[in-house]
């Protein structure tokens, strides 16, 4: 009950302004119903009770009172009282993921057949197939970071762009993983759909650790790092980068175990964050409709409107 009261609010508080004319209407009708008001200016206060008969309306509900009550209930309904959340209709079944790919000469190494870069493309393709319908974007980095594609459900376009990346197209050699992660986080934030970041890299420059701690700090989306090296060669630099980013480090596997592990991590991250973009406050004002209908039904009684 405490949680309900803490979350209780109205979706359209401006509608509560309509309570002012409801109060004014109730006061005016009460004043008009007071038959002694017109005599107070001409009869002494001590004689007024002796010269007037008390009205017979005090003990029953008047049409004006019913109208004021219906007005108040209608105003509350329009304001949209709520205390719980519900899924947004037609919301994406899964939040987007930003792929952050290291595009350097080392990614052309063939110790992971056919090459580390080709295997990264295969893993990305498997992950997108496993998360069918979910949007994905792409950031490429080496000595600089570049947004290749914002989140899109068109996986064919993303995989084509992924395949076209090579060290030759990157303007500067180097390692700017922190810059790439920050760019991916800003892209997700601008989309307003939440999401996670998946880094596909075979190494990280030690000088990036301090910058990575800032990039993966409070407010950053969940991050996973897929080590694009043989399983028995996970480097200290990758482990340090994962620790600095507060990210999960997933070793490469010859089957799809790594991809399934990543997909589970993305789902867990979504559940822990709550994915507010896929939920909204539930509208509950319509529950007052039956009560409003019962009040309005009184106006169909013969002589009710003329009663006073």
TrEMBL record:
<keyword id="KW-0812">Transmembrane</keyword>
<dbReference type="Pfam" id="PF13519">
    <property type="entry name" value="VWA_2"/>
</dbReference>
<keyword id="KW-0472">Membrane</keyword>
<feature type="transmembrane region" description="Helical">
    <location>
        <begin position="64"/>
        <end position="83"/>
    </location>
</feature>
<keyword id="KW-1133">Transmembrane helix</keyword>
<dbReference type="InterPro" id="IPR002035">
    <property type="entry name" value="VWF_A"/>
</dbReference>
<dbReference type="InterPro" id="IPR050768">
    <property type="entry name" value="UPF0353/GerABKA_families"/>
</dbReference>
<dbReference type="InterPro" id="IPR036465">
    <property type="entry name" value="vWFA_dom_sf"/>
</dbReference>
<protein>
    <recommendedName>
        <fullName>VWFA domain-containing protein</fullName>
    </recommendedName>
</protein>
<feature type="transmembrane region" description="Helical">
    <location>
        <begin position="12"/>
        <end position="29"/>
    </location>
</feature>
<feature type="domain" description="VWFA">
    <location>
        <begin position="97"/>
        <end position="203"/>
    </location>
</feature>
